[in-house]
Task: inverse folding
């Protein structure tokens, strides 16, 4: 590496919008603390954090806003291949030559068009796979609410055939075109020096879909457990924290909570909220819809719960909320799907259940509620100890630095 170690950190958004953005910004903070010069590259947005490099960010694109056909056509072109992003990243490299570039989410806003420029300029490049987009055109290997792997082996026409994106032929067709262009130009396979998988499940799934195992590094997400204080008392409820979306298994959770006669709190917002309210009334579930909470309120809610519940029904990656529950000294009940099982030590830090099985989930909730507070505290303490040892910021930075050294 060069004497001045400089990281080019790339992500669509430069503010804490979701889990991927939190990982991205925490990554930046960790490397600044280690003495690196960090240069961000993102999309312009009113909520962005201030940066002296913001003049190089690409123009804002916010989907869902009212716009004319010409604007929509321009946006569609940028989704596939952004010439502006290529120009801007080339100018940025000219001003601040990076030792290594690390990309997170770039789809649809920045676009992977920048990867060819980074490759041509000889900049080592890694990308964290926060989802399965590099294999599945629709990100989640999910179609009509069911886990789907029809596109495996290059059969990506299925994304349009089954309208996998927003159940729309137009949007799914655009995603198909995007995938065809990106694959024909080798914008991922021919440019990335390494792909980072936060879960072993994602690593193995990407290998099964044709990625070279030697080019994938498993680096788990991290959390600073010292910033979280376990609560002194329990509140007598189970909690889910996250987006209220179909793939999260919340209909199953509502049914399970009713069967187990356990109180439930759902923290978050999303497109499923109204449907879930109707289901809760139908099932007779004792549930509180807490909505979006700020960080202190959310930590207090999770910290006083009997347990966090993750009833996912899609290939979840490596949920930060699970690590947060452990940091707060709480056990976790998780669905046996995706990367969740590798983050739960059965009977020690929580319980695992079959994904989509309300009866099994109800049984687990009842069993955990029947334990003494001391037993639940012991499970949470095991989880807190685990994240302190294996998922600490120091371990994350050490693993990432080792990867950077291997490719520079």
Result:
């Amino acid at each position: 590496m060069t004497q001045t170690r400089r990281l080019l950190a790339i992500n669509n958004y430069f503010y804490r919008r979701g889990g991927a953005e939190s990982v991205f910004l925490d990554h930046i903070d960790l490397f600044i603390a280690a003495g690196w010069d960090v240069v961000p590259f993102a999309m312009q947005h009113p909520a962005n954090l201030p940066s002296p490099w913001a003049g190089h960010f690409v123009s804002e694109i916010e989907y869902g806003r009212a716009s004319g056909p010409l604007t929509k056509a321009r946006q569609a072109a940028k989704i596939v291949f952004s010439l502006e992003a290529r120009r801007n990243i080339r100018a940025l490299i000219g001003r601040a030559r990076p030792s290594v570039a690390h990309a997170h989410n770039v789809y649809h806003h920045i676009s992977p068009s920048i990867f060819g420029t980074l490759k041509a300029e000889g900049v080592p490049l890694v990308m964290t796979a926060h989802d399965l987009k590099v294999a599945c055109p629709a990100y989640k290997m999910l179609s009509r609410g069911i886990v789907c792997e029809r596109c495996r082996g290059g059969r990506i026409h299925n994304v349009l055939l089954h309208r996998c994106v927003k159940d729309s032929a137009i949007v799914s067709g655009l995603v198909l075109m995007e995938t065809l262009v990106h694959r024909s130009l080798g914008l991922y396979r021919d440019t990335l020096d390494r792909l980072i998988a936060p879960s072993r499940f994602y690593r193995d799934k990407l290998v099964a879909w044709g990625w070279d195992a030697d080019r994938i590094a498993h680096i788990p997400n991290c959390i600073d457990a010292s910033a979280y204080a376990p609560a002194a008392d329990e509140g007598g409820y189970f909690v889910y924290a996250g987006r209220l979306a179909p793939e999260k298994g919340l209909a199953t959770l509502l049914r399970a909570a009713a069967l187990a006669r356990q109180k439930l709190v759902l923290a978050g917002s999303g497109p499923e909220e109204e449907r879930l309210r109707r289901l809760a009334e139908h099932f007779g579930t004792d549930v509180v819809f807490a909505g979006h909470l700020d960080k202190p309120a959310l930590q207090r809610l999770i910290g006083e719960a009997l347990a966090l519940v993750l009833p996912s029904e899609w290939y979840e990656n490596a949920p930060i909320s699970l690590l947060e529950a452990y940091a707060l000294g709480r056990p976790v009940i998780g669905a046996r799907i995706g990367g969740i099982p590798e983050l739960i030590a059965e009977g020690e830090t929580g319980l695992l259940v079959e994904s989509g099985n309300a009866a099994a989930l109800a049984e687990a909730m009842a069993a955990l509620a029947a334990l003494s507070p001391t037993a639940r505290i012991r499970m949470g303490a095991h989880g807190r100890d685990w994240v302190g040892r294996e998922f600490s910021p120091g371990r994350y930075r050490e693993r990432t630095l080792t990867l950077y050294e291997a490719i520079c």
Remarks:
- Confidence is low (pLDDT under 50) at residues 63-73.
- Residues 39 and 52 are 9 Å apart (CA to CA).
- The first helix runs from residue 19 to 33.
- The chain has two domains: 6-134+188-222+392-407, 225-390.
